Amino acid sequence: MFRVLVSDKIAQEGLAPLLESDQIVCVQKNVNEVDDLDSYNAILVRSATKVTAEVMEKMPNLKIIARAGVGVDNVDLVAAKERGIVVVNAPTGNTISTAEHTFALMLALARKVCAANASIRKEEWNRAAFGGIELAGKTLGIIGFGRIGSEVAKRAQAFDMNIIAYSPSMTKERADNLGITAGTINEILAQSDIITFHCAITPETKGLLNMDSFKKTKPGVMIINAARGGIVDEEALKHYLANGHVAGAAIDVYPQEPPADYDLVKMDNVVATPHIAASTAEAQLKVAVIVAEDVLNVATGKPVQNPVTV
Ligand code: MLT
Question: Separation of 276 CA from ligand 1 center, angstroms?
Answer without folding.
Answer: 8
